[in-house]
Amino acid sequence: MKGIILAGGSGTRLFPLTKSISKQILPVYDKPMIYYPLSVLMLANIKDILIISTLRDVPLFERLLGNGEQLGINIKYKVQDSPNGIAEAFLIGEEFIGNDNVALILGDNIFYGNGLSKILEDSVTYFQIYEKQVTNKKGAIIFGYPVKNPSDYGVVQFDKDGNVVSLQEKPEKAKSNFAIPGLYFYDNTVIKKSKMLKPSERKELEITSINELYLLEKKIKTKILGRGMTWFDTGTPKGLLEASNFVEAIQNRQGFYIACLEEIAYTKGWIGKEMLVKIINKLKNCDYKKYLESLLKK
């Protein structure tokens, strides 16, 4: 499975913070925002990743992450000329995806919680299981997160088996209180489906339209991110502050870092002790360096 991080857009909800820099470069407490969605793909054991951003901002991500070699992964980059919708990511990334399945995560979404790694790994495994069968039931997996104000989000209604019953985009009367966060798993037909779309009233290729096509085929499932799970959309000043405060509280109370890319790579065996030491030696005196040094002692 390939992974795509959509880190484009102009970040207008965060102006003037984003007037001269990508919002996905902004700090969420002690790390650039893009570390968090990248960590989610890594936790899902996805090692081939495409970052899509603007012509202005792609060089920033290249300078920050390079080709991913230091993390034991492969990172490529593509430009989205203008914010034409989330679903355009599959058209931009068509060559990158090839014949594989693909996971898409929005660059301003943060996920954290006990059991998250298993949920992500199981989602990838779901596609691997059906890869070997003639039934071709792979389809799509989206997530449901309980919220108090579902009318502010895309909303999913599902049955007891997780099969999606209906999808609504910011409805006045929501059929459920489960919002759809910015993380999606699709089979390879998502490319063909994306080519079928026409721009919405917002002049964008909508991700909801992709999900509706899978719903027509009855090939879309929901996984619940319930109690113990946290999801942030950091695309607003309030969301950015709330996420930063949350990360600070967890890390200082528990001593574990959230979205430490080097730790994930080291723990999974993608990089060895020699590479970790090399990374540490390049860092100046900071808390992040001290945390990486603590990994060598465990």
UniProtKB/TrEMBL annotation:
Reaction equation(s) it catalyzes: dTTP + alpha-D-glucose 1-phosphate + H(+) = dTDP-alpha-D-glucose + diphosphate
Gene3D superfamilies: Spore Coat Polysaccharide Biosynthesis Protein SpsA, Chain A (3.90.550.10)
Domain Nucleotidyl transferase: 2-248
Job description of the protein: Catalyzes the formation of dTDP-glucose, from dTTP and glucose 1-phosphate, as well as its pyrophosphorolysis.
Keywords tagged on the record: Magnesium, Metal-binding, Nucleotidyltransferase, Transferase
Enzyme's top EC category: transferase
One Pfam family in the UniProt entry: NTP_transferase
Protein name per UniProt: Glucose-1-phosphate thymidylyltransferase
Record-linked CDD domains: G1P_TT_short (cd02538)
Enzyme Commission code: 2.7.7.24
GO molecular function annotations of the record: glucose-1-phosphate thymidylyltransferase activity; metal ion binding
Similarity annotation: Belongs to the glucose-1-phosphate thymidylyltransferase family.
Needed cofactors: Mg(2+)
Organism lineage string: Bacteria, Fusobacteriati, Fusobacteriota, Fusobacteriia, Fusobacteriales
